[in-house]
Amino acid sequence: MAKEEVQDRYGIVYFIFVLLGTGTLLPWNVFLTEKEFYDVRLHVQPYNGYITENFMSLFCLVFNTANLVALGFLVKFQKHLSLRVLVLQPLVITFIMLLSTAALALRTKIPGDLMAKFTLPSLALMGLCMAFLQGGTMQLASIFSISHIRGVVSGIAVGGLVTSVLSFVSQLRAQGGGGDEPQTADDVAPAAFMYFSASAAVIGACIAGYWSIPMLPYGHYKLLLAGIIDDPKERKMLTIDEDFEEPLLTVVERADNGPSTSTGSRNETTRAAIISVESDYTIYSRTWQQRNAFYIYCTSLFLCLCVTMSTHPGISSFICSVDNPAKVSPCASRNDRPGILGRIQGDLFVPLLFVLFSLGDFLGRFLSGYGPWAHGAPKPLSILTYAVLRCGVAAAVLFCHLVTPTPWLLDEYLSQDYWPWAVILLLGCTQGHLISTICMHAPSTLMPTEQSKYGPVTSFAISAGCFVGSFVSMGLSSVFQSH
């Protein structure tokens, strides 16, 4: 009689993976949504004018460079690293850096140039940590099931939405200045401290969740089968079942290095592998388009993130309400209208744009589960065309009401406030839909012997798109400002 598999009771392990997905992109989301804080803190005398004028573009460039280099390393060497190195250690480093940033937010007398010298290396370190978390959390989830992989992906989308909303609320509760009076470091310090501290608490919860997985019956069972933890007696009892489910990542026992997660070859051929080979050979088309489907999908991922990063957040963070009195960056904290409307048309306008982008990204991922593309892999060139057409959405940002350090040269065809709201929402929605669609179907385009490419190569394409998009953003900002 077959032994029944241990169940994930109450979905506790699933929700831990949602939490880990949230923590994976938390460093990026936290610093991305604190543009108003750095607008003030980096202007404390003495400060570096180039850094203050281009902080968001420099942020994207530094963060994504470190992330891209680390992912390039992981493409080749991830299979040799333990889950402790890939998940736990990056979480601990991120936790320490967020706490340090929260403490630094209260040191309001620190000059802007010193603040920049701390912030930019911190961004590089957290970009590196995020690369390890991207690979590690997906590798850990793949030991469990497809639903747990979806949990990580869902957590990433939820994390972006939660951090942008949290940033908006923290700034809403902050003391706004009056009229054209600029905010000071003392004005923005309490909200920033609360925001960075809350983000550190989320990372702390991720650390606790990671530690608790092997203590839960379902987590212990799956890690035991995968060879991540070792109990020879219990392993023998659990693997006599002929209906044993092969994990997505094979565990190879090595005499020299001990057990390690890998997608390397095995001596034996399982029934699951035979079915996979038959399925892949059936799907694998003879046409050029489908022979190269995986690489076209990855090119589309690259274009998707490159197009987004070319205008958001490096340029979109300079959008102000058309009723904002500011003539140069940053936007005035409020206009002459009373109450929350004055704040929304003031210092809350950009945080609201980040909320709308994250909401659009979340909706796009949700909508990817419906329609014809949800039930079958779309044609690769259709996906590529979709990615190229998003250029029109991103370009619309350039014609909104931009208040840059020097006058913006392009005409404001989309100056009314509802235009940037709609454009940013659409930009986020199309990004979430495209990324989710590609990630769902890209594995089916690979042969069984090529499955190990999926995680590292797709992550590398995403980071490469962000990296190149950061340069494009800086170039556009320079070309379309008067000097």
UniProtKB/TrEMBL annotation:
Keyword Zinc: no
One GO CC term, this protein: plasma membrane
Coarse class of the protein's main subcellular location: membrane
Cellular compartments annotated: Membrane
Keywords: Membrane, Transmembrane, Transmembrane helix, Transport
Annotated GO MF terms: nucleoside transmembrane transporter activity
Record bears the keyword Transcription: no
Membrane disposition: Multi-pass membrane protein
Entry's transmembrane regions: 12-31, 55-75, 87-106, 118-140, 152-172, 192-213, 294-315, 348-367, 387-406, 418-439, 460-480
Family designation: Belongs to the SLC29A/ENT transporter (TC 2.A.57) family.
Protein name: Equilibrative nucleoside transporter 1
Source organism of the structure: Volvox africanus
